[in-house]
Amino acid sequence: MGEVVKLAHGAGSVETSQILESLIFSKIEERLKKVEGGLGIDFPDDAAAIPMGDGRFLVVTVDSYTVNPPFFPGGDIGVLAASGSINDVLMLGGKPIALMDAIIVEEGFPLEDLRRIVDSMLRVLREEGVALIGGDFKVMPKGQIDKIAIATVGIGIADRLIVDRPQPGDKIVVSGYLGDHGAAILARQIGIIDEGSGGGLVSDVKPLTRLMLPLVEKYGPHIHAARDPTRGGLAMALNDWAKASGTVIIVEESAIPIRPQVAYYANMLGIDPLALASEGAAVLSVSPDVAEEVVEFMKKLGFDNAAIIGEVRKAERYRGYVLLKTVVGGLRILEAPRGDLVPRIC
Amino acid sequence: MRAFKIYAVGIVQGVGFRPYVKMLADSLGVAGYVKNMGGGEVEIFVEGERAAKFVEALWNSRPRAIVLEELIVQEAEPQGRRSFEILKSDEEARTPSNVPPDLAICEECLREVLEGDERRRGYYFNSCSFCGPRFSVMRRLPYDRENTSWVSFPMCPQCAAEYSSPRLGGVRRFFYQGISCKLDGPRVRLLDSSGKPVESDNPVLKAAELVSRGYIVAVKGIGGYHIFARATDDSVVAELRRRKRRPSQPFAVMALDLRVAERLVHIDERAASLLTSPQRPIVLLPKKEDSPISPLVAPGLDKEGVFLPYTALQYLLLAHTDDKFAVATSGNVHGEPMCKDLKCALEKLGRVVDYLLDHDLEIVHRVDDSVLRFTNGVPTFLRRSRGYAPAWIRIPRRLKRPVVAFGADLQTAGAVAFEDKVVLTQYIGDLDNFDALKDLDQELRWFFKAYRLRDPVLVCDKNPAYNSTRLCKEWAEELGAETFVVQHHHAHALAAAADAKLDEPFVAIAIDGVGYGDDGMAWGGEILFVEGAKYVRERHLRYVPMPGGDLAALRPARMAAAYFHEAFGEVPMWLAERLPGGLPELEVVERELKAPKLFTSSTGRFLDAVAAALGVAWERTYEGEPAIRLEAAAAGGRPLPLEAEDQVELFAQAVEAYRSRRPLKDVAYSVQLKLGSILGTWACESAQRRGVDTVAVSGGAAVNDFIIAGIAQEIVSCGLRFIQHIRAPPGDEGIALGQSYMTSFT
Ligand SMILES: [Fe+3]
Ligand SMILES: [Mg+2]
Ligand SMILES: [Zn+2]
Ligand SMILES: [Zn+2]
């Protein structure tokens, strides 16, 4: 048998980048990787952009959401599908205006559950003032899909784009606790916490409009990169940045806000909490002269645990490394997460 | 009248070779010259009646610091020279020569320190042509004073006179590049942990007093800082463990001399000669029953790592302590490279030590202490560094192109190689640490330049998660170089072959913690049939799930759960107590055991599982801890009749024997011996099938006395030749040797 697609290929990890590179990126002509003057798959970022001719950009993003279980502490797949695409538009500097959805459900899925999920999605749109301008709905025979999958397209308008280009000297700022979503889902999947109680693990899934719109308005030109660290977590986001900008990013382990219960479960499962997904947090690369101010501003907006966690450094050699300064002062190499278990400890 | 041109290759630079040659020539009354060539070799020209006699004498006797590997002698035209001269170095490279390793202080130098004249009595940096720092102070080749850290210490008139006159300097000081004395040499200072100078008449005596009083003191040595602490005081050792965050990894003990060391450990003749050799390694030796050393120095182990001072400073320091021995562990914090400058020492060791004994001779290359043990009666490297590295290792084939090999990832070293020589770097450490990775990169660049290499091929491990693999890719991009990827155990096998100068097909037993397998699984108990660049995986330890990947290596109870599941179909509940996550973690493990994602044939993980099942070790706070403790637990054990076809059955047998209250040491002993004989039997079958007569063993687990004894018995009894490592470490520090050797077959 030839090679087959593995779960690791879809884990938003090193393997994902590799398979996409070989399947798509290396096969498509440069000129077709974006709309002229815009942003496309030629550059790794949260969303795509198309110039509108008046100096502004149409920001577009697409994502499909499959999460098991569809209901989890802190949210459900409906909130996730709406928030995820809204956040991706925001992270490119856009103001979300509309959403489209495609829902695929398994035959036999409880209608009540579907109603709850769609209600959640609509609630988010209502609260954010984002229009639902189209969609698709399909049902698959039993066993041909696992419960439910939702794809959403997020659409927004940006006066100026935040294309992820961290500058040497920048400070890395996070909006709050990291890894909450990933920890909650993982713990549910392996059954160590039940729905409801959650063992203190609650997904942070939420739209970040209230954070990003005022931030972009006030500090736009100082924000050199923005990400919501979803799959692959902070580790993935920073590795992408360091690689793309040819810099070294150093983060202070003790400064990264991680909830004790998240650290506990991650440790038990042998997973680096920095590789766990957040669905309601932002990571920014900000000019050093306004970094403190940005953190204060975030706190005023209700993001109490916002913090500076590190900085971007110019690199001659060893470009593209992300280094974790440990509590004892050593520099550990923080690698991009892998989807496969690859043991290396002798 | 005859004349000869001679090229000498070996360890001939920086070990008193030129002055020795000059004095030899003068004594025979021949004329000519000697000079260092840029790449490292030494060129000699002699003419005169007794020129042939000179050549003969050169070949037959010399001081022990000089290692001659090759002497190329050509008949030449006489030039009519009147005297014998040492000429200024030539930049032209011929056959590159060995970069000399650092040498322990010689007996004559120590005698001068204790009872010599005013300039050298009590001089902490006394050294001569045959001893002292070399590689660690070398900025570039050739080995000339201006290319070393000694350049900061201009010679006093007396030293200058000794340096330039054979009559005044004698063979030990004439032309000695590191010549110095009390008047012009480096200064010693005592500082507190914040870097503030501490006033004292004699900083070394003061430091000795502080150690005796229970203070923890960093001491700058040859390749880095040590941390000295009183070894007889439990509370001092416990405090050092707390500050270093090193709960149980053994500390080395430095003893003033053999007499003192004999009170601590059992020393036979071979051990004594290793301990007193110019390489002066740490040697693991059986503890004495009545040893005064605190049990916290090497907790749970039957051996103590002991070494002798290799500088005058260390000697005088110990001589003035109450105990005459002390803990002398490397000056680092957990998982990081040892400090080699004051800035690092203050930053990183400031919280660990109370005082620092510093000096101002710059350390250019960090060089850790070497560590050896006896395995199956053979001195075996656990770490090949100071005293040995970077002397090259000759291999039985020639390389077509220079090689840069990146080794493995943890406890690793790299190599550059050319012709039939592999230069393994000094011990580098764990590459998940960025400073260690930078060290590897910089040392490889340094050797590459020092040996004037060009257009290399690069070799790295197959493991995609290794940082060495990442570094290798970066070099490949930078140089546009061809890159080979070698499977970990194939590299181990070839390292054993290169070590033994074996150049024919053979069967290898590669046993270690983990290496990335061709099937993506965690290999580590492998029988390979090796034909140069090709190998066949003949057989391996039975695959067992490895729940959580690396987490299973960090938490031995996970592997015990996997083995219980495999051997008995169920996992005992009490293992939960041995997991940091308790019952929930055990449930996670059990779920994974029912649908495993990763399998392993690792010997290390088997030993972990046995250690956990027998209650010998639950934690792994340093590499190989459970296996090391299991080996210690087997000391003095006697064989039980265990019948098992593979290691899973063996696990079941060991558990049954333990349950039926057989003595722990007998169970521990038997399980390791039997594992060896299972592997040995498999290797014999494979060798007979393939028609080869040699079986080599390599890998990190190949230092285990009982496993190797079990293997060796089988191999010898089936009439095959058995090879174990001698010149290179069996562990991952030897990987780069195997990687280099591999390219000779391509
Ligand atoms: Fe290995
Ligand atoms: Mg962005
Ligand atoms: Zn000497
Ligand atoms: Zn002098």
From TrEMBL, chain A:
InterPro entries: HypE, PurM-like_C_dom, PurM-like_C_sf, PurM-like_N, PurM-like_N_sf. Pfam families: AIRS (PF00586), AIRS_C (PF02769). CDD domains: HypE (cd02197). Residues 167-321 form the PurM-like C-terminal domain. Gene3D superfamilies: PurM-like C-terminal domain, PurM-like, N-terminal domain. Residues 45-157 form the PurM-like N-terminal domain. GO terms for biological process: protein maturation. It comes from the Archaea. Belongs to the HypE family. PANTHER family: CARBAMOYL DEHYDRATASE HYPE, HYDROGENASE ISOENZYMES FORMATION PROTEIN HYPE. This is Hydrogenase expression/formation protein HypE. It comes from Pyrobaculum oguniense (strain DSM 13380 / JCM 10595 / TE7).
Automatic annotation (TrEMBL), chain B:
GO terms for molecular function: acylphosphatase activity; carboxyl- or carbamoyltransferase activity; double-stranded RNA binding; ligase activity; zinc ion binding. It comes from Pyrobaculum oguniense (strain DSM 13380 / JCM 10595 / TE7). This is Carbamoyltransferase. The active site is at R18, N36. The keyword Zinc applies. Its EC number is 6.2.-.-. Residues 201-387 form the YrdC-like domain. Belongs to the carbamoyltransferase HypF family. InterPro entries: Acylphosphatase-like_dom (IPR001792), Acylphosphatase-like_dom_sf (IPR036046), Acylphosphatase_CS (IPR017968), Carbamoyltrans_HypF-like (IPR051060), Carbamoyltransferase_HypF (IPR004421), DHBP_synth_RibB-like_a/b_dom (IPR017945), HypF_C (IPR041440), HypF_C_2 (IPR055128). One of its GO terms (biological process) is protein maturation. It is an enzyme of class 6 (ligase). Pathway: Protein modification; [NiFe] hydrogenase maturation. Coiled coil: none annotated. Keywords: Hydrolase, Ligase, Metal-binding, Zinc, Zinc-finger. SUPFAM superfamilies: Acylphosphatase/BLUF domain-like, YrdC/RibB. The keyword Zinc applies. Residues 3-88 form the Acylphosphatase-like domain. It catalyses: an acyl phosphate + H2O = a carboxylate + phosphate + H(+); C-terminal L-cysteinyl-[HypE protein] + carbamoyl phosphate + ATP + H2O = C-terminal S-carboxamide-L-cysteinyl-[HypE protein] + AMP + phosphate + diphosphate + H(+).
